[in-house]
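Notebook p. 47: complex prediction with S-adenosylmethionine.
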Amino acid sequence: MPNMDYDIWKETELTEKYLSGVRGAIPLAKEQIELILRIIDGCNIKVERIMDLGCGDGILAASILQQYANTEAVLLDISEPMIQAARNKLAKYSENLDFVLFDFGESRWTEMVKTKGLFSIIISGFSIHHQTDKKKMEIYSDIFKLLMPGGLFLNLDQVSSSTDRVSFLFDDYFIDSLYNMYDRNGIGKTRQEVAEEWYNREDIGVNKLAPVEKQCEWLREIGFGDVDCYFKVFEIALFGGRKPMISGDSLK
Ligand SMILES: C[S@@+](CC[C@H](N)C(=O)[O-])C[C@H]1O[C@@H](n2cnc3c(N)ncnc32)[C@H](O)[C@@H]1O
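Predicted complex, structure tokens below:
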């Protein structure tokens, strides 16, 4: 199996840079998590079993577990340092957790996670955008199959801008956010240095961004109901849908 370009995430240095830098600077991150919890709450589903796909340090799973403490969770990531960071972050829930070191770009990935049954929620954060569009569709289709009827899929991800100018606005917005975070933490970097760091970040080259409208259409075609983009600010979008209770029915 050849190394894929997103294998860069296996490097400890990149994971540390992400967790101590970009992750903490994602604009409106707190609001995104509040919204995720609100959507879950509004779905009236029994949150028994969840999966965090491309979990990183498990920030999204941790937010759900904080609210639904007895839930079983599967956390899948391709990167050993990330899985280790998630183990540390979620140590207090360890009895209910399965960590899976695997590449969801490989078609066998579902075999690794479905042993204990279907999921009430599958969530993913800033991970699927490294896949080609064809692969994204396959992954969404796999996710649909892994959900129990009524189950919820939420993808908080980077999506494409409509034009280069809008993309520039997003970069500018993110650079300000990073700069302000460093400033708050007493890390003295000029805005120019932060901009250089942003434009030269390693993972930028492995992004394969797609418009959120198109991705919502794919979800509808697969059979998800109640598909929507619940939140969007420039290239950061929270979108998803639910697996209908009865095939073809949308949930209310
Ligand atoms: C930008 S980080 C996001 C981490 C976390 N979900 C968050 O919201 O902060 C992307 C994560 O996806 C993982 N990842 C990227 N491609 C993957 C793949 N094909 N299979 C499994 N994990 C993958 C990386 O190792 C990394 O932990």
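Notes: The first strand starts at residue 49 and ends at 53. The chain has one domain: 5-242.
Next step: compare against the earlier run before touching the bench.
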